[in-house]
Amino acid sequence: MAGHVSMTSPLDMVELVKMIIDLVDPDDLLNVAFTCRLFFSTACARMWTMLNPQTHVTLRRVRQTLEGRHSVNKQRMPFGDYRTLVNHFRWYPHDKGTMHFERQFFDVFEFPNLVRLEFSYAAAQDHAVQHIMQSSQRLRHVNLSHCYCLSTEAIRPLLDIPPSLKTLILYGCGKIDAYALAAVIRRHCQSLECIRLTDINNDILTAIQQCDKLQDLGLEHCSEALDSTCINQFAVHLMRQKIPRLTRIRMRDIANLNTEPMYYLARATTDTLVHLDMSECNLINQEEFTHLATLCQSLETLLLAHQFSVTDEVVQLFAQHCRKLKHLDVSGCRLLTDNAFNVWLDQGENNFSSMSPLETLNISGLEPDISPRVVLHLLQHLPHINEICLGVAYDYADATQLVKTASDFSLDTGRCVTICRTNWSTRSTSNPFT
């Protein structure tokens, strides 16, 4: 032969297997793992990337696996390797019992490559959460919502890991010392993009002010410890930012949130805000809602539950100016009448209803003031509507009353009303605040 031509494949077998496994639906990974020996290790590694036990029984089985109790051939997959595969650990149990684990239960939950930790469990103890966070220097997202028993000790590892945390969610963690929490925020201020907290004080909000990359801010149930002057200073700081970034604001039940900072907040988020929750903040007047409606026209989600100053005119303004609005909650706004929805009732030239992207509408508690005609019109003419909430049922008596309310609206309850039990902590939604 005149010459020798060598042919090489652009992909080796390992790369090819990884490409195939990446295309597999997560629910099918176990089946694929047992189809052939070639796929086994790669599919198992992919399954362990996100560890999401949903019951106490499953969590105990995971623990046994991490301890090596189920390893038949440790030469093939040493039990210690499973820990290095986990990037995301999520413990949001579906069985909501308050079962207490033995103190050493979570000692084997050491994930050196853990990036995201979501731990929502009312009986969670400091030792468990602290141990998991201490095992990883790569944490970027920490969500400890509704871990009511946690104290300052639980978050101390965040003062030692590299300053690269992006998400910090501590809803309901009221026992954590404000000074320590402010220190954590200051340490990670150059990277934090999402902060959600309960009942903060001035020191914590001042620390948040240093987070120039903040895109998502959630504050709830803040008492007198957070004063109006500090809130106003924070709003002015946001307005003066060269590059506005804030896309989501949740300020729910903030005792001292009044009208003064609202104009600055509206100005600061004119081009970026898509989610706004101002529920139960009753010091805000109608004029400030007008500013929000006219300035923040990119809103997709608007939650104004139990607001004393939300009038028909306010709802009309948001409907007219916010053409991308998909989710609206005006439950408990007792000043509203049928006129609030005139923009969507008008069948004239503009015909907003046919162009509206509105998907969900919550008008709970307004049944005496909103007529059946309006509800029926909205159901029939809003092209994307899939949920109108008329009330919330907590027991059988409430559910029966809800069906009666729907009947009073002249709706066919056999076709138009569905009563279901919703697990809010695991509800599949793009809204991070629910």
Jot down its keywords.
single chain, 434 residues, alpha/beta, Leucine-rich repeat, LRR (right-handed beta-alpha superhelix), 3 domains, 13-stranded parallel sheet, 18 helices, 13 strands, 35% helix
Walkthrough of the structure:
The protein has three domains: 36 residues; 163 residues, Ribonuclease Inhibitor (Leucine-rich repeat, LRR (right-handed beta-alpha superhelix)), CATH 3.80.10.10; 135 residues, Leucine-rich repeat, LRR (right-handed beta-alpha superhelix) (Alpha-Beta Horseshoe), CATH 3.80.10. The C terminus is likely disordered. A 13-stranded parallel sheet has the order 1-2-3-4-5-6-7-8-9-10-11-12-13. Helices cover 35% and strands 12% of the residues. It is α/β, with parallel strands linked by helices. Helix 10 packs parallel to helix 11 and helix 12 runs parallel beside helix 13.
Compact description:
This protein has helices at residues 13-22, 29-33, 37-49, 56-67, 79-85, 126-134, 152-155, 178-187, 202-208, 228-239, 260-268, 286-295, 312-321, 342-345, 352-355, 372-381, 396-408, 413-416; strands at residues 50-51, 88-91, 116-119, 141-143, 167-169, 194-198, 216-222, 248-254, 275-277, 301-303, 327-329, 360-362, 387-389. It is α/β, with parallel strands linked by helices and 434 residues long.
